[in-house]
Amino acid sequence: MASIATDIFYQFFKDDGKLRDIFVTRTSKEDWNQLWDFILQNSSSVLVVDGQETHKLPQRIHGLFAELYNKHIYLYITYEGARFALHFIHLNKIEFDVCPREIKDVDGLIAILNFMKRIARLLGKNISLSMENSHNHPLLTITPAHKCIPHYRSMNSLSLKIIN
């Protein structure tokens, strides 16, 4: 089973200077609220508003979307040692960036897959991983039932049973 994670790591997480996107499409205000509750309970986070960092997160997310017209806002999340940047762009898409340079080994990748698995189950929606700004060509998708669907020719159908 560890070889599956190793294959994904070496195919998708070479430090090529590009970010990787993790995203959920067709999201709603309720999806964002569920995600926000999860973040408040399960991660270490730093909110960045116009370049100013704070560890004090609002209890509700709706105020952040109201501020988007006036301010640049994103959130750094650390989950199981992996760091993600959450962007507040549209209510209909949840998007995180991951920097391959920060994913040093297969354990780092497993943390990313665990995170994706948790979000897929939480929202009851597929979550995908792609190269930066290539959402029409995901590398892999995780379903709410934790099935991993690879979209690369060289990968076989995977099961994420390696992830608790």
Describe this structure in words.
With 164 residues, the protein is α+β, with helices and mostly antiparallel strands. It has one domain. It contains four helices and ten strands; from the N terminus they run αβαββαβββαββββ. It has helices at residues 2-12, 29-42, 62-67, 106-123, and strands at 20-25, 44-49, 52-54, 73-79, 82-90, 93-98, 127-131, 140-142, 147-150, 158-159. A ten-stranded antiparallel sheet has the order 3-2-4-5-6-1-7-8-9-10. The two termini are 12 Å apart. 27% of the residues are buried.
Q: Concise description?
A:
It contains four helices and ten strands, in the order αβαββαβββαββββ. With 164 residues, it is α+β, with helices and mostly antiparallel strands. A ten-stranded antiparallel beta sheet has the order 3-2-4-5-6-1-7-8-9-10.
Number of helices: 4
Please bin the fraction of helical residues: 25-40%
How many beta-strand segments?
10
Strands of the largest sheet, in order across it? Answer: 3-2-4-5-6-1-7-8-9-10
**Which residues form runs of ≥5 with pLDDT under 50?**
154-164
Strand content: 25-35%
> What is the total number of structural domains?
1
Based on CA atoms alone, the radius of gyration comes out at: 15 Å
| Order of SSEs | HEHEEHEEEHEEEE
- Helix vs. strand class: alpha+beta
Averaging pLDDT over every residue, what do you get? 87
